[in-house]
Specification:
Blueprint lengths: L6 E8 L5 H9 L4 H9 L3 H22 L8 E3 L5 E3 L9 E7 L2 E7 L4 E7 L6 H8 L2 H8 L3 H22 L11 E4 L4 E4 L10 E7 L5 E9 L7 E7 L5 E4 L3 E4 L2
Parallel strand pairs: 1-11
Antiparallel strand pairs: 1-5, 2-3, 4-5, 6-10, 7-8, 9-10, 9-13, 11-12
Helix pairs in contact: 1-3, 4-5
């Protein structure tokens, strides 16, 4: 599959669309030692299957662009846990980022390294005010708690997925304080303010919130360099462990 410089591809798969036994059997053949250790630390079978689903989706997507067999992929991790393909594999691998939640996995693939994606299951009730005061910026807290109670849960998950996408794109995880940047919302736009940076030091970002049509919040962030063209999105979904199809990208909000 071709991946132009100005495109980001988003791949999804649901655990309900794969054979758990086949997934487990296949994954055991190519999981790295550190991945096996993480897998075995997971207690619940659902969490184990979700972990394998994400590893499977990552490998099969990267193989789509390179032709490298799924079992040949090896990964290294930075100090904050962000993976990248190990050098010496004999292919030019694209950059990627993985997220999974409640039986669904999603991978973003790009020629741009500063890439982050996050999916969050929204069907679980959260103590919005308590979590927001702990993690969100003041302007986000005020805007969130000013909303009617009936929509605070959905806005909370939108914010959380956006924040996760940003820190994953930076590659620093929670080493970046979640209060150090803030999002604002309008009808079809989302804005990002890097609070701790001067206006001159703020990077150029493209941010998307995608409409999944399901009880999930999905956000994507990519940091662009000066002079880079805007990125466009394509979306694909695996119906099973061998077949995929392209889907329409449904954008809920995006940065201006």
């Amino acid at each position: 599959m071709n991946l132009p410089e100005n495109e980001i591809h988003i791949w999804q798969v649901a655990l309900s669309d794969v054979d758990p036994a086949a997934l487990t059997q296949q994954a055991r053949g190519w999981l790295q030692a550190n991945e096996i250790m993480r897998y075995e630390r997971l207690v619940q079978q659902r969490h184990r299957l979700e972990f394998m689903l994400g590893k499977w989706l990552t490998r099969i997507c990267l193989s789509e662009y390179t032709g490298l067999a799924m079992g040949d992929w090896q990964f290294i991790y930075n100090a904050h846990g962000k993976p990248q393909p190990r050098e010496g594999l004999g292919v030019q691998a694209p950059f990627f980022n993985l997220s999974h939640s409640h039986g669904r996995a999603v991978v973003a693939v790009s020629r741009t390294p500063e890439l982050g994606i996050d999916i969050e299951f929204t069907g679980r009730k959260r103590r919005v005010a308590k979590i927001a005061h702990r993690y969100f910026a003041n302007e986000e807290i005020r805007a969130l708690l000013a909303l009617p109670d009936s929509v605070q849960q959905s806005r909370f998950y939108e914010l959380w997925s956006l924040k996760e996408a940003y820190i994953k794109a930076r590659g620093l995880g929670l080493a970046i304080p979640l209060k150090s940047f803030a999002y604002t919302f309008s009808k079809n736009r989302v804005g990002l303010n890097e609070i701790t940076k001067s206006s001159a030091a703020q990077w150029r970002w493209q941010i998307w919130q995608l409409n999944t049509g399901l009880p999930y919040a999905l956000a994507l962030a990519v940091q662009l360099q000066a002079g880079d063209s805007d990125r466009s999105l394509k979306a694909f979904r695996y119906q099973n462990m061998t077949q995929h199809s392209e889907e329409t990208v449904a954008v809920l909000r995006m940065s201006s």
